[in-house]
Each structure stands twice: as C-alpha cells, then as structure tokens.
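no rush on this but wanted to send it before i forget. theres a chain ive been looking at and ive put its sequence and its fold in token form underneath. please have a look and point out which stretches look like helix strand or loop to you. thanks a lot i owe you, the record is right below:
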Amino acid sequence: MDFLPLLRELVRTYQAFDSYSSQHIRTLGLTTSQFDVIATLGNTPGMSCREIGEKTLMVKGTLTGVLERLEKKKLITRRENPEDKRSVLVQLTPAGEALFERTFQAHLDFLAPAFKALGQEKGDALQAQLAELRRILEKMP
C-alpha cells in the first residue's frame, strides 16, 4: 500500500484543525498550549506535571514554560503534591477556574459546526478508523 497520500492527508487535516482551532483560542487571550493546560485542569482537583504532559502531549520543556506563563497570569498554582512529595501539584486558581468556565464550552461551540458538517455516521466511522490506526501504531515495535 502506498501510504504517503494517506499520511499527507492526515497531517494536512491536523494542520487545518490546528489553524481553525487556534484562531478562536487566540481571541480568548490564550495560546493553544495555555488553553490545553487550562482545559486539562478544569473540573479537576489538580494534576502532577507528568499527568498534564501525558494528557496534553507536551514535552517537559514546553510544559514548564507554559506553566510559568500561566502562573505569572495567576491562573494556576504549583505546590508540593501531598500524595507524592517528589512531584508538584498544579491547580487552577479561582481566576483560572473562571477562565475555564468562560472558554471551554465556548471553544467547543466554536468547533461544533465543523464536526456537525461531517455528520454523525461519517464522524463515527472516521473516529473508529483513526482509533484502529492508533492501535496498530501502538503495537508496532
């Protein structure tokens, strides 16, 4: 199978999604990475940096910079993790929670028309196909 056309389309689709999504996130006064962290921490008691990195797929260096900027904006706090003294617990401040409440659903509402245009049946099929590809890749040596 010549998979290069499929690979290119997958990358182009991600790039188109990222561009579309990012334009809205910027109107909310955040970078994509900052929004990712706020959205990940929303409605949680907090997470370790490792957990945030796993959920957002950010590498440690990038995540550290994002957390520093969010802390300067007083949107997060970092403190010793009571469950693991070797790690830090990152939590939204009241201002961070308010930002999450204001932006998360608004962003989902912004994205919804694009996915609704695909239709439920095609969306379900695409999700299943992407999950199948992910499982195949995860099993590869």
In short: The helical segments are 4-27, 32-41, 49-56, 60-72, 94-118, 120-139. The mean pLDDT is 95. The chain has one domain: 17-139. The CA atoms of residues 7 and 13 lie 10 Å apart.
